[in-house]
From TrEMBL:
Its EC number is 2.1.1.14. It comes from Camellia sinensis (Tea plant). PANTHER family: 5-METHYLTETRAHYDROPTEROYLTRIGLUTAMATE--HOMOCYSTEINE METHYLTRANSFERASE. One of its GO terms (biological process) is methylation. Zn(2+) binds at residues 655, 657, 666, 670, 679, 741. HAMAP family: Meth_synth. InterPro entries: Cbl-indep_Met_Synth_N (IPR013215), Cobalamin-indep_Met_synthase (IPR006276), Met_Synth_C/arc (IPR002629), UROD/MetE-like_sf (IPR038071). It catalyses: 5-methyltetrahydropteroyltri-L-glutamate + L-homocysteine = tetrahydropteroyltri-L-glutamate + L-methionine. L-homocysteine binds at residues 445-447, 613. Binds 2 Zn(2+) ions per subunit. The keyword Iron-sulfur does not apply. This is 5-methyltetrahydropteroyltriglutamate--homocysteine S-methyltransferase.
Length: 769
């Protein structure tokens, strides 16, 4: 393998004008909104369920904002952000600010209220929600603005100004944060029906007047700083996109005069081209990245993970930077908004002291930023620094972290290749002799509906309220029910339904060494939804088999092939907080070895079909094209490691929860799975186009024939239609028939008829072939 990409230290390049001279300059880019115990989530959901009033919701929100501001102020942070709170999403807040409400929501003007706001976010009885998509390479999702040439912008949400004033009334002078105008447009999509040729950036002239109004009001309210988040600057932009930055900030220049302006970038370093454009702005606007005479906000505290900062290392980096930019020109900051980390370690009572000393959630990161700023100014808190140094040392030397055997095994994987010995078409032939499946074989993705009763059984077993015996009995009954149902439906390759799993990553993490699970380490995913990623703190190993007991039990209930069901190493990695003391690929290889052991144990137990889900493989794709090949290489290698040791007759499936893999199709093929099932039902065309373009594909493939995210039951004709469409571009003998994803979130009264129609459609087409 090539060496890991060498990243420059996490820096967010920001430039400010006329910054007041200050010795202890500390800055926080943004802060989590949910609250230490997800207070906002519960307030939102209760409001949506009409169990509480708008006033109740506003009160919870105001209390959260106030406690966050006060917490940062008392920690000594100098540049405290405001307007990073949101009832749903900061991009949607910007849409509201600009009055860019799509016409279907029937908004007629005036200040946008909860009704319109939440209709855009979540849809209402008659209109679906706006589209949601991932925020850069994080697990946060934003609401995608829909803009067309006809749109009339107006200043329709005074939230930024209101929050600035609210903080000021509490005695905290904040830095109001706005999503920058260029990033806003670059993150938008053209409204439905707008021709492809329409340029979103052409709307710049129309939104800048609103930005000017907002800036003027903030100035009038007493703000002396303003922060524009322009994270798209870290992407590979085209020159006309870069020119838009020049145009926008030149246009804003007169309104901004007298204000200190921070342009905030995060998630990666600014590419050379963008850096050049921005430095060239200097002559035009006096607003650039020429570090001499400007201030540098250095994001040395990582906003995306949960590890305590190595304060000594950061301080020495800061001192080096100070040598470059000049004394008093350096502001200590976070690498990005703390939105992407957990909230407060204080609530983690189950962690032991040692593990806790290695960690820092948002509240602790605020303290770190401030202590670094103080140390830089010559007021080092020796006790705090030496406590931190001790924790860093204990993490480096702890036997809980290091497992020599695992390190060695993972290191041995580097530079070598792992592939099954036989090519995929020969393997498929060997497997078919053994499995004897009909053409267009039917299967499902793994989980069956998770009933309240099932959740109760798992909860009570975990809390030791029921015995192991009772638990096994209950799960066994459930598996039996699911097996019998699939036989009745006449599905060809069965699943056990995953009733013993609460989450596809947590289930494995809990059985592997090197993982820890927080009680309250929630991170906002979208709206009121949060995820609680496992923490990988040490070398990963598998003390004992994890799924063999249930899978072989399930296989013993049927003569049909039963799929063993595993989560792949890349997905486990991408959905966890990953250790920062070794490269990501190293951790991924370790997980791959653990999963490999499981694959081989399943094979020994007589499981002939094994599915290794890589639902999140695409999520880890780096933002910058120059880094993508390296990632794909080790990610795909990790997947192959898990199953390179099985015999030809063992059929390896994988599953992916997206269909936009046109750009990574060669990596997907290189995974060398025997069968791949993918989400597809919402975008047939995209997937089909890959194959129309002549990509050679010889493995089995099951593009989902219906959307499991909707309660709607698809008809036999509709499913048959989609299968026929697929058959126009794919060989008959490689096509599988299956739903989009697992059935966990659906009800049995939806799943039964849907699967019945799916099998009927497959059978109908078989007779016609
Ligand atoms: N096997 C998992 C399930 O069926 C896959 C889930 C997923 O892809 N997100 O639930
Ligand atoms: Zn899926």
């Amino acid at each position: 393998d090539p060496p890991p990409p060498t990243h420059p230290p996490l820096l967010s390049f920001q430039s400010i004008n006329n910054f007041p001279n200050s010795k202890m300059a500390s800055h926080i880019v943004g802060y989590p909104r949910m609250g230490p115990k997800r207070e906002l989530k519960f307030a939102l959901e209760s409001f949506w369920d009409k169990k509480s009033s708008a006033e109740d919701l506003k009160k919870v929100a105001a209390d959260l904002r106030s406690s966050i501001w006060k917490q940062m102020a008392s920690a000594g942070i100098k540049y405290i952000p405001s307007n990073t709170f949101s009832y749903y999403d900061q991009v949607l807040d910007t849409t509201a600010m600009l009055g860019a409400v799509p016409p279907r929501y029937g908004w007629t003007g005036g200040e946008i209220g909860f009704d319109t706001y939440f209709s855009m976010a979540r849809g209402n009885a008659s209109v679906p929600a706006m589209e949601m998509t991932k925020w850069f390479d994080t697990n946060y999702h934003f609401i995608v603005p829909e803009l067309g040439p006809e749109i009339k912008f107006s200043y329709a949400s005074h939230k930024a100004v209101d929050e600035y004033k609210e903080a000021k009334a509490l005695g905290v002078d904040t830095v109001p944060v706005l999503v920058g105008p260029v990033s806003y447009l670059l993150l938008s999509k053209p409204a439905k029906g707008v021709e492809k040729s329409f340029s979103l950036l052409s709307l710049l002239d129309k939104i800048l007047p609103i930005y000017k109004e907002v800036v003027a009001e903030l100035k009038a309210a007493g703000a002396s700083w303003i922060q524009f988040d322009e994270p798209t600057l870290v992407k590979d932009l085209e020159s006309h996109q870069l020119q838009a930055f020049t145009a926008a900030y030149s246009e804003l220049e007169s309104t901004l005069s007298g204000l200190n302006v921070i342009v905030e970038t995060y998630f990666a370093d600014v590419p050379a081209e963008a850096f050049k454009t921005l430095t060239s702005l200097k002559c035009v606007t006096g607003f650039g990245f020429d570090l001499s005479g400007k201030y540098l906000f250095a994001g040395v505290v990582d906003g995306r993970n949960i590890w305590a900062n190595d304060l000594a290392a950061s301080l020495s980096l800061l001192q080096t930077l100070e040598g470059i930019v000049g004394k008093d020109k350096l502001v200590v900051s976070t690498s990005c908004s703390l939105l992407h980390t957990a909230v407060d370690l204080v609530n983690e009572t189950k962690f032991d002291k040692e593990l806790k000393s290695w960690l820092a959630f948002a509240a602790q990161k605020v303290v770190e930023v401030n202590s670094l700023a103080k140390a830089l100014a010559g007021h080092k808190d020796e006790a705090f620094f030496s406590e931190n140094a001790a924790a860093q040392a204990s993490r480096k030397s702890s036997p809980r972290v290091t497992n020599e055997a695992v390190q060695k095994a993972a290191a041995a994987l580097r530079g070598s290749d792992h592939r099954r010995a036989t090519n995929v078409s020969a393997r498929l032939d060997a497997q078919q002799k053994k499995l004897n499946l009909p053409i267009l074989p039917t299967t499902t993705i793994g989980s069956f509906p998770q009933t309240i009763e099932l959740r109760r059984v798992r909860r009570e077993y975990k809390a030791k309220k029921i015995s192991e015996e009772e638990y096994v009995k209950a799960i066994k009954e459930e598996i039996n029910k699911v097996v019998k149902l699939q036989e009745e439906l006449d599905i060809d390759v069965l699943v056990h339904g995953e009733p013993e799993r609460n989450d596809m990553v947590e289930y494995f993490g809990e059985q592997l060494s090197g993982f820890a699970f927080s009680a309250n380490g929630w991170v906002q995913s979208y709206g009121s939804r949060c995820v609680k990623p496992p923490i990988i703190f040490g070398d990963v190993s598998r003390p004992k088999a994890m799924t063999v007991f249930w899978s072989s039990m399930a296989q013993s209930m049927t003569a049909r092939p039963m799929k063993g069901m595993l989560t792949g190493p890349v997905t486990i990695l991408n959905w966890s907080f990953v250790r920062n003391d070794q490269p990501r690929f190293e951790t991924c290889y370790q997980i791959a070895l653990a999963i490999k052991d499981e694959v081989e144990d399943l094979e020994k137990a007589g499981i002939n079909v094994i599915q290794i889900d890589e639902a999140a493989l695409r999520e880890g794709l780096p933002l910058r094209k120059s880094e993508q090949a390296f990632y794909l290489d080790w990610a795909v290698h990790s997947f192959r490691i898990t199953n390179c040791g099985v015999t030809d007759t063992t059929q390896i499936h994988t599953h992916m929860c997206y269909s936009n893999f046109n750009d990574i199709i060669h990596s997907i093929i290189d995974m060398d799975a025997d069968v791949i099932t993918i989400e597809n039902s919402r975008s047939d065309e995209k997937l089909l186009s890959v194959f129309r373009e002549g990509v050679k594909y010889g493995a089995g493939i099951g593009p989902g024939v219906y959307d499991i995210h909707s309660p709607r039951i698809p008809s036999t004709e509709e499913i048959a239609d989609r299968i026929n469409k697929m058959l126009q571009v794919l060989e008959t003998n490689i096509l599988w028939v299956n739903p989009d994803c697992g059935l966990k979130t659906r009800k049995y009264h939806e799943v039964k008829p849907a699967l019945l129609n799916m099998v009927a459609a497959a059978k109908q087409i078989r007779t016609q072939l």
